[in-house]
Design goal:
The protein has helices spanning 9-19, 73-78; strands at residues 24-36, 43-57, 60-66, 84-86. It is of the alpha+beta class. A hairpin with a 6-residue loop joins β1 (24-36) and β2. The chain is built from two helices and four strands; from the N terminus they run αβββαβ.
């Protein structure tokens, strides 16, 4: 169960510090995907870019979904001084 869903990267980083998180997982999506237009209008194809960052500590899960991730997201997370694991599967 997700126990915390901060709205910004800054809130995520602050929560990780408060909860004593020792590592984070990052899933980034930057690919072309189909998008449904209005019902019955068909499908278009466009670039989809988002990121999900998840941390776990003492039974609490912190998850941040970023619709337009900054180009230096990985660097910002690494600057926290925590191990960063990139994943290719769904982080929910």
């Amino acid at each position: 169960m997700i126990t915390h869903q901060p709205e910004t990267l800054e809130q995520f980083i602050r929560l990780c510090g408060e909860k004593g998180v020792r590592g984070v997982a990052l899933q980034e999506v930057d690919e072309i995907r189909p998008e449904l237009e209005q019902l019955g209008s068909g499908v278009t194809v466009g670039q989809v870019r988002f990121a999900t960052v998840v941390a776990y500590a003492a039974g609490e899960v912190i998850r941040l979904k970023i619709q337009v991730p900054p180009a230096d997201l990985r660097e910002q997370l690494q600057a926290m001084g925590l191990p960063l694991r990139r994943v290719n599967h769904n982080l929910g």
